[in-house]
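Propose amino acids for all 294 sites.
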């Protein structure tokens, strides 16, 4: 009860903060960056190790520069997430643009649904909201529920403000089964880590064996729905765009793990071009292939 009450109080104060204009929030972000990077050293060991593993060819100075830029981006991401609580449609469309939503209509006109992959890159929470304007068809956003039920419910409401439908991982098959005859866009956050007991496949990602979910591939092979990558790019501070990139139009003809490797490799390509905008503080590599067989 105490945790729920405190969570509700925290959400109320986040709502008040979200009413502030972007320029004020970015002043707050500048202060948060100093706190994260110089004072608390938030998850700095994790960030440093992740960067070292991913970019052993870079110098210490180069990795430090990425690290510093990452913490600045992380602070921005925090205040932008708060702003999403009350952001208007006009503001959202100003800060996040969709470059080619007509690609979805091409598939829908063929009575096909579309499966999309995106990573923890750029502002994926803002992407979840802007996808609400990508098509008039249903837009499902698959997510991993939080342990805090109050905050999880809050996030579901937040992500659904402009038409996206949040669906928990465990409810994915059931939800898609009820909509099987209806063309739709289903988006998965593809760089989350499966639990050790459910890990079925490791692929090479950022210079190391990485456990990945096979959900997108399994769904694509079962339904025959084409797979795209939601390529999010940072244009400048607070401004993003997304381009839908076709990865596999005929998934039933693909080889085993081909679809999974495709979307993982595409995400790596995006990260390597501007690494500071990926979530390096995420404990992505919790175990190795040899840990599974012990």
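Proposal:
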């Amino acid at each position: 009860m105490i945790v729920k009450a405190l969570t509700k109080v925290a959400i109320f104060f986040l709502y008040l903060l979200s009413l502030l204009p972007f320029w004020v929030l970015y002043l707050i972000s500048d202060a948060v960056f100093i706190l994260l990077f110089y004072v608390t050293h938030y998850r700095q060991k994790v960030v440093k190790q992740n960067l070292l593993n991913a970019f052993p060819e870079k110098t210490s100075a180069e990795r430090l520069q990425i690290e510093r830029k990452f913490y600045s981006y992380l602070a921005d991401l925090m205040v932008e997430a708060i702003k999403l609580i009350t952001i208007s449609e006009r503001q959202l469309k100003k800060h996040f643009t969709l470059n080619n939503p007509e690609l979805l209509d091409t598939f829908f006109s063929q009575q096909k649904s579309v499966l999309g992959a995106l990573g923890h890159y750029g502002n994926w929470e803002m992407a979840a909201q802007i996808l609400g304007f990508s098509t008039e068809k249903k837009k499902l956003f698959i997510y991993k529920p939080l342990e805090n039920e109050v905050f999880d419910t809050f996030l579901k409401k937040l992500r659904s403000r402009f038409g996206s439908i949040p669906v928990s991982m465990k409810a994915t098959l059931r939800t898609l089964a009820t909509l099987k005859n209806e063309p739709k866009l289903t988006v998965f956050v593809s760089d989350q880590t499966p639990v050790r007991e459910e890990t079925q496949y490791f692929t090479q990602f950022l210079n190391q064996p990485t456990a990945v979910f096979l959900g997108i591939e399994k769904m694509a092979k079962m339904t025959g729905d084409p797979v795209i990558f939601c390529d999010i790019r940072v244009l400048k501070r607070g401004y993003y765009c997304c381009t839908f990139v076709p990865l596999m139009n005929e998934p039933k003809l693909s080889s085993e793990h081909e679809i999974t490797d495709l979307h993982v490799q595409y995400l790596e390509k995006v990260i390597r071009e501007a690494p500071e905008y990926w979530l390096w503080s995420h404990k992505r590599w919790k175990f190795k292939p040899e840990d599974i067989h012990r």
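The longest helix spans residues 60-83. The chain has a mean pLDDT of 92.
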